[in-house]
Amino acid sequence: MSDIIREPRLEATKFFKYQIDKNALCIHEFFKCVSASQWSLSAFVKHIAKLETGLNFEQLFKVFAKSLDQIHELLVVPICVRTFAQNYLKWLETCTGKAIVNECREYFFAKVTLQEKTELKDIFKDTVNVTAQAKAYRAYITAPAVPTKSSTSFSKDQLSEYHTQQTDGTYTGDESDRGTDEDVQERHNDKVDEELIEASTEKKRKDEDDVTSTSPTKRSRSRYESPYSPSSSEMEILPSLTTDPQIQHEQTQQAHTPERHIITPEDKEEKENSLYDTFPVHIHKRPEPNPFLVGNQNDHNIDEEGDEFNANLTIVGGKSTDWIISGINIREKLTNYQLEVNPPKTHPEYYDIIFFNLNDEDNFLRTLDKGIVAQMRKEIKMAEVNSKNQEIKFFMKNIIDRDIKKTKENLNHRNAETIDSFEKRFTLHFVSHMVKVIEDVNLFHDPMSEGTYIVKVLAPILDYFFDKKKKDWRVSYGETCLKASAKDVNSSKKDDERRSSGKKIDTIICMREEDKEFSVIEVSGPPLKNDWTHFMGDRMKIMKMLKTLMNQFAILNPSSDITLIRLFGLQAYLNELTIYEFKLKYTEVYTTEAILTFSLPKTWADMVNADKAIMGLLKYEHLLSESSKTIQDFLWAGDGMIEAIKMTTRMIHTPENTEKAKNIK
Question: Spans of biased composition, class Polar residues (predicted)?
């Protein structure tokens, strides 16, 4: 690792004012209220020194490093900010970085020492004042009583005689006169006692307030904010400062474990303004960002708080069966995972969805044995479609030539109307379209927007399928809305409230006769722009939309068999298309699988492998046809199923339910 002499700074970028989202977990408040251009260890230490958290420098430095590491892993953070966080962590390991760390340590120590001296001085002042006050009161109490003025006037001789009679016991006056001085003394003593009690109470209250304000636990609760409160089981297995033996030793006398109880709204409001044991306890495992992600990216937020899908509802009941592999109930395993990890909305597990990628397993699947995962893949695998790959390859050899002009001549000699095979006619259409895209001025050589890519590249290819099925399907391009989503959201609104049309989607495919949507397509940015955050956000959106559609069908015919339905989504990213299959084969467990990925040609040299793209697109058309057929069968089916086992939708996993479940264990 080469030393970076200059301290990294994020200045020459449009994100120099960027701040971390207020709701982000495991990241210190400093990064949520200070602009990214001002992020540095020295600024962090100065910020903390003002807060009087009660932590030592080593603990604060670990908080700073953990926060930067978490920022680097968060996919919602712009790539330039994530790169800065990574570079800063590397810089801290250099000689220059270590020198800055030592300077900050000395500054922090000096600041704390000065603060302690000031506090001791204040305490000494209070002690001296209280001692002097107590002595004054004591002298005041023991002093001879001074009679107060009365309406009766005494001469010096009368007063002398009065004292003499009081002394020798020969006083014969009125008894009421005798009690005058005693009453004065008694009232005086009572007043002094009341003042002493009040002063003592006030001092005690002040001391308690001082102790409360200087307690590390209390101070940290008022300086950090974390909406997440983990259980004791999470504290044992998740990485955090609270599990660090050194920190545990330093904070043994300060630790306090509250009793478990059902969280009330008041408790929740108090907890939102507190920190759990002075540091975030949950750093969630996230997949590594794509290695080819470079350059400044947009701040596309994959955690869409305003989503208008009912994806947080899960189908229960019906004919689905429990998913049990080697004696393990997958639904129970998923529930335990949700309770322990509390996955964010950017993860499929939040919506009771298990996602199977093409190559690796993330999140929930990573917690299972590889043999179990392999068996799960096998059980959700669909039967292979009869492939005509070899036939298409042979047909293409007679058409495609290294010379694009020769290819055009071959196309002119072929009459698509005389070819009885749909696959071959589509092959001619695909090759002809790619000639238009690549010949003369190749569209892929110039910057192309997402909308241009849809209109000029993707839509003309897919339209060939939709023209074939124009009596059965209807397609809508360009930031359209999912009616199933809008209907679900608007059904809960009053007539006088503003009704919304639902989230925008690139392409929606609808069954014409039933007027029901059944598939979606998302284009994740321009074909030449690396934007992994956009890709991840759109992939999550596809899963949520397909779940919304699946729930819609369950509501339309609750007595039918939902396991018959298979839904499919298509995603385009960097000119690469991925097909996703979505289904509910087992009880309360949705599955999404990336079943195929293929690339469209960008140059004429890529046409040598164009058969893969053609077969992938033909497979997509076949899957859509099968999907629409199974949906029609589902909607028409009905076997008089008794009410008790009909399907319905309800909330299975929510952060609130998870929080309550943790507290009643």
Answer: 148-170
- Residues 105/57, Cβ–Cβ less than 8 Å: yes
Collapsing DSSP to helix, strand or coil, 577 comes out as strand
Which amino acid makes up residue 4? Answer: I
Structure tokens at 299: 């701040």
Supply φ then ψ for residue 498, to 5 degrees. -70, 125
Question: Left (φ > 0), alpha (ψ -120 to 50) or beta: where does 583 sit?
Answer: beta
**Which is higher by pLDDT, 118 or 199?**
118
Where is 292: in which H helix or E strand?
none
Residues 6+ positions from 440 with CB-CB distance below 8 Å: none
Residue bearing tokens 């001879």:
144
Give CA torsion, residues 122, 127, 132, 138, to 10 deg: 150
* 385 backbone φψ class: left, alpha, beta (φ>0; ψ -120 to 50): beta
> How distant, in Å, are the alpha carbons of 410, 437, 449, 523, 534 from that of 446?
28, 12, 10, 18, 21
The pairing of strands 576-586 and 589-599 is antiparallel
Per-residue pLDDT reduced to its tens digit, 561-585: 898 899 999 999 999 999 999 999 9
Q: Provide φ and ψ at 578, rounded to 5°.
A: -125, 130
pLDDT of 536 above 90: yes
Contact 247, 59 (CB under 8 A): yes
Between CA 284 and CA 577 the distance in angstroms is 29
Torsions phi, psi for 26 (to 5 deg): 65, 15
CA 135 → CA 140, 143, 250, distances in Å? 8, 12, 40
Residue carrying structure tokens 């909308």: 451
CA proximity to 627, closest of 500, 511, 515: 511
Q: Is the dihedral of CA 242, 245, 248, 250 positive or negative?
A: negative
Taking the whole predicted model, whether its pTM rises above 0.70 is answered as: no
pLDDT band at residue 605 using 50, 70 and 90 as cut-offs: very high
N-terminal to C-terminal alpha carbon distance within the chain: 48
Q: Cβ(285)–Cβ(68) under 8 Å?
A: no
| β pairing state of 576-586 and 353-356 | unpaired
Among 630, 566, 615, 618, CA closest to 592: 566
Q: Please, which residues have CB within 8 angstroms of residue 282's CB and are 6 or more apart in sequence?
A: 25, 26, 228, 230, 234, 238, 240, 341, 342
Contact yes or no for 342/578 (Cβ under 8 A)? no
pLDDT confidence of 664, banded at 50, 70, 90? very low
A 10 A CB-CB count for 187 gives 11
Which residues lie across from 516 on neighbouring strands?
A: 511
CA 27/CA 539 separation, integer angstroms: 26
C-alpha atoms less than 13 angstroms from C-alpha of 502 in its C-beta half-sphere: 22
Helices (H), 16-154: 30-33, 41-51, 57-73, 79-92, 95-142
Give the pairing type, strands 353-356 and 589-599: parallel
Buried b (16+ CB within 10 A) or exposed e, 128-150: eeeeeeeeeeeeeeeeeeeeeee
Angle at 416 between CA 414 and CA 422, to 5 degrees: 130
Q: Are 456 and 443 in contact (CB under 8 A)?
A: yes
